[in-house]
Amino acid sequence: MQIDQITPLLKYGDAISHTVLYLQERLKNTDVVSNIYTPTGEQEISGRSLDFNEFQEPGNQIIYHMFMDSEAAQFMAGLKARQKIMVYHGIVPPEYFSDYPSRTHQLRGREELKFLKNDMDLVITNYKYHERELHELGFERTLVLPPLINLGDYDREPDPHLLKLYRDDHVNLLFTGRISPNNKQEDIISVFNYYHKRVNQKSRLFLVGEYRGNPGYYRKLLALVNELQIKNVFITGRVSFAQLLAYYQVSHVFLSMSEYNGTCTSLIEAMYLKVPVIAYHFGVAAEVLGEAGRLIRDKDIRETARLVDRLATGGQARELVLERQSARVAGFHPDQVFPNYQEVLNL
């Protein structure tokens, strides 16, 4: 049996790329032949994918990962296969990029999603939030399955230099994810500004994530930090996996103000690595956390900063959140999740 995957890109530090690679690994462990194909020039992780030009017409099943505009959509539409499955990871609404060039890419991505509507035998998505979006666009054959994440990766050793540098008497706040308008890092900075100046001066904020894709928004964040004259705000850019683990290890609270995040993998990471989560209440975040973490329904800066303080300084509130997060993240263990994919793929 052969099940191939097509994805618009494969790059380091990208949650969807890691899902694609891990799905291939699990498929191969069940004696399935599985290749990954990406457009020319999008194979940042060398040796793990093939170029479109090397594609051979499939005879079995093919999975297309949809999350951005790409020539891969047209390529997928022209293929013949026994079964064509789309995994829809969400496309950020273009209104978040009204002042940025990437708005065009979001618009194209949504047009390509509509274009593929009648070409798929099944569309899998990880959250009901995205399934509702698909139904609004007229998709009928949809299925919600939990995300497939290799949680075992997070048991690796963290970067020792960062552990030594930041394990001290400071409270560290963390957000991990692409520097992007939909992730609302400016709201996180505003909360930290109040927390750092009014609640606890011995504090830091780490915004860990790639910013090269949104340079205009990155400059806006730097200008905000300068305007507010805040110390101890670190916008790291892309980091290694060992460094990512270290930032989780030294952090006391994970704070997300994101208003649209297709995967919310970082919330799962934080729960697994025992960092209390505070997240703005939007569809996917609410589904990921369930009764775990703390969801906030408005962005009141003072109340959020006080909640950060309660969870950062220990005590019963923190322990209760961690207990619920540990129970919740168990449901995302890949050994529980992968059998769902096996059933769908008839393995």
TrEMBL record:
<feature type="domain" description="Glycosyl transferase family 1">
    <location>
        <begin position="172"/>
        <end position="318"/>
    </location>
</feature>
<dbReference type="GO" id="GO:0009103">
    <property type="term" value="P:lipopolysaccharide biosynthetic process"/>
</dbReference>
<dbReference type="InterPro" id="IPR001296">
    <property type="entry name" value="Glyco_trans_1"/>
</dbReference>
<protein>
    <submittedName>
        <fullName>Glycosyltransferase involved in cell wall bisynthesis</fullName>
    </submittedName>
</protein>
<dbReference type="Pfam" id="PF00534">
    <property type="entry name" value="Glycos_transf_1"/>
</dbReference>
<dbReference type="GO" id="GO:0016757">
    <property type="term" value="F:glycosyltransferase activity"/>
</dbReference>
<keyword id="KW-0808">Transferase</keyword>
